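#help-structures
NK: newbie question, is this the right format to request a structure? protein is DUF4386 family protein
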Amino acid sequence: MTDLNPRARLAGALLLSSALAMIAGAAMVVPSGLTLNPADPAATLAAVDQHAGLHLAELAVDVLGWLALTAAGLVVAAGSAEAPRPYLVVLAGGLLSAAGLAGLAHDAGNLALTQLAHLAAPPQLAQPGRPGQLDQASAVAAGVLLTAKWLVNLAGLLWVAATAAAAAGVPMPGSLRRAGVIVAIFGLAGVALPWTTGGEGPSVVMEQAGYALHLPVLLWYGVLGGRFVRGR
């Protein structure tokens, strides 16, 4: 039997895969304390070095999620001609891909942190000729962490904008469209949280609250992707 809409099914599979990967990644890092808060770089480096395997596994899952989101955005934009308001579908797809690329840049920073954590580990510091290595590694880690955190904040902002555009332009039932508007508000609140702290930066509790506020966005894309896969 010929698939009458393979593009929508592919977009749905990618959106569903991305949402599942993101939720799996969050489930790995939040309970283990590997949210990588830049407020205490030395403690963050120690946690990453202690749980290096888990950290790398979570990064692998997260990278797959951002890659799937990037590809989904491209596929959604490519199918815009089939929608009543194609310009909004192109906008939604472009914003989704931009969010995916920002997320991949965020993960690149977190991957670099793995090697910094190894350099700052006690056995490495004990080697001759490395005085002040921990202070140097902590200073570099603080810069990497801050950059990575604001990149994922940018990814979240782009994702929220994509959600609003998708809810307005992508063909879907009215109930799902209204839900898209609501989850976009939740996501925007999650993006705004770090901006309320001024120069201090978000605490671990605030970061976890941000994860919780983005969860409805992930679930909405999972539902939307599931509908696309079923051809509805």
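mod (FA): yep, format's fine, and the tokens are attached above. Residues 6-229 form one domain.
NK: thank you!
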